[in-house]
Amino acid sequence: MSQPHGQTKAMQDLIDRLDLEKLEENLFRGSSPQNGWQRVFGGLVIAQALMAAQRCVEADRIVHSLHAYFMRPGDPSIPIVYQVERIRDGASFTTRRVVAIQHGKAIFSMSASFQVEEPGFDHQIGLPKVPDPETLMGEKEFREVFLAKAPETVKKYWGRERPIEIRPVSLTHYLSDEKLDPVAHIWVKAAGLVPDERHYQSAILAYLSDMTLLDTSLYAHGTSIFDPALQVASLDHAMWFHRPCRLDDWLLYTQDSPSAAGARGMTRGSIFSRDGSLIASVAQEGLIRKRAND
């Protein structure tokens, strides 16, 4: 696919990977980038599974929620096959189940519900008061100022071009082992052009919803997902889509972790548009296990 004027390579790559290959009715194939990571990014699996489900619903049905489980790490060296099961087609709601398969085994499953858009009661929580993204350090400046002394895992993560730009309100978590309140406010923005099409917008919103989320559960313990002494992985992911959003401006991703216990961390998130509209809500539990000493 040709790259539109003004598009970035990273965003175009994501869009291309969301354009799944149809193998058969209800059966699709996707791939992940060869970026040196040992497992496929969970947000990409969620986004591709959602695209597969959206391909199997009527055009007037818009996703309003998804509930997913990660069962095995994704292998980035081979394609992922997405099998869609058409659970229910009702007058207003449609339900689809998607299973992602590699090496003949399920690595991920997701149920998604779609609804015909209709009016109704409308209220929401308010946008937190935080600094505007333009006042915060950008990723380019962050790399220049801090990455020289950072661990290799941090350099690898922050040093590559990504389809989503991240501007945390606070960088303390990345720079010290101070124990902090398990709360984060992070501005996120598509680093490129997102198609003016609801299926792509929902999938890319789902993609970015998995970014930085589990890390918040480690704030209270003075560590991060980059700590080599930890085994960290997403276990499940739920998301509710409240209002449409074009993804052409900054979004505020507020996160908190109400609990960590049993080698698992629980984190919640709210995604707001800059004008204060609550776009989506997210919940995730992840493995945050201390590795056994060799």
Structure description:
The chain has a single domain, classed as Acyl-CoA thioesterase, double hotdog domain (Porin). Helix content is 18%, strand content 37%. It contains six helices and twelve strands. A twelve-stranded antiparallel β-sheet has the order 1-2-4-5-6-3-9-12-11-10-8-7, with helices on one face. β11 and β12 form a beta hairpin. α2 (42-54) packs antiparallel against α6. The model has no long low-confidence stretch (mean pLDDT 92).
For this structure, what is the CATH homologous superfamily? Acyl-CoA thioesterase, double hotdog domain
- CATH class assignment: Mainly Beta
Low-confidence stretches: none
3D shape:
globular
Class from secondary-structure proportions: alpha+beta
Largest sheet: 12 strands, antiparallel
Q: How many helical stretches?
A: 6
Number of DSSP E strands: 12
- Domain count: the total is 1
Mean pLDDT level: 92
CATH topology: Porin
Compressed to H and E, one letter per element, the order equals HEEHEEEEHHEHEHEEEE
Strand portion, in percent? Answer: 35-45%
The percent of residues in helical segments reads 10-25%
CATH architecture assignment: Beta Barrel
Radius of gyration: 19 Å
Distance between the termini: 48 Å
Query: How do the strands line up in the largest sheet?
Result: 1-2-4-5-6-3-9-12-11-10-8-7
Keywords:
single chain; 294 residues; alpha+beta; Porin; 12-stranded antiparallel β-sheet; 37% strand; globular
